[in-house]
Design goal:
The protein has about 220 residues and is mainly β. Helix content is about 15%, strand content about 40%.
Length: about 220
Amino acid sequence: MEINTTTVNILKNFAAINSNIVIKPGNKLMTISEAKNVLAEATVTETFDKTIGIYDLQEFLSVLSLVDKPRMQFDEKYMNIVGLSGRDTVKYYYADIEMLTSPSKAIEMPEAEVWFTLDESTLSGLKRAAAIFGHDQLSIEPSNNAIKLSVIDPENATANEYSIEANGGYNNEQFKFILNINNLKMISDNYDVKISSKLISEFTNESNTLKYWVALEKSSSYGV
């Protein structure tokens, strides 16, 4: 089975969420952070026919780069990674999945009270503002039938802030949801975002091939 560039990029992204991964039979890849506050799911073009545990995902990705157009041949305890020419081969052993952190299933998103579109440039701008100011909190509030996204420092009333409006809606004008920007580890893309007062958010990309569920901070508020 040849692994394509898109799938490799997804695995690179997942490595930033968790350093290990369990690949289960089928065409979906899932990972969850050690803190259990970020979960991601991707639908890929490849179909895996067995459960594979990878302890060091970054190392595995580096191994893939050792050969040109890597193809994977799965054995019971290891895989052979073969280059296009067939001259070079890497024998890569699976990890014990009992030693790895993996989600058992995707999250069933509760009914959302807030929703908005987060385009690629807005996501990038929020991350850049957070890096410039040294803030790690993203505030999500109502703003004239739109959604205001603000990079803030809640501990400092006079701290600099960066805000931008996004198209969206809400069921109740009384809310202030807080996300930790460090948990926004999604691949650069355009996302439809849903937020529930049960302190969970869902980010779905335009092609509906990537989903991220990110826990909200307990300082979030909803309703009167």
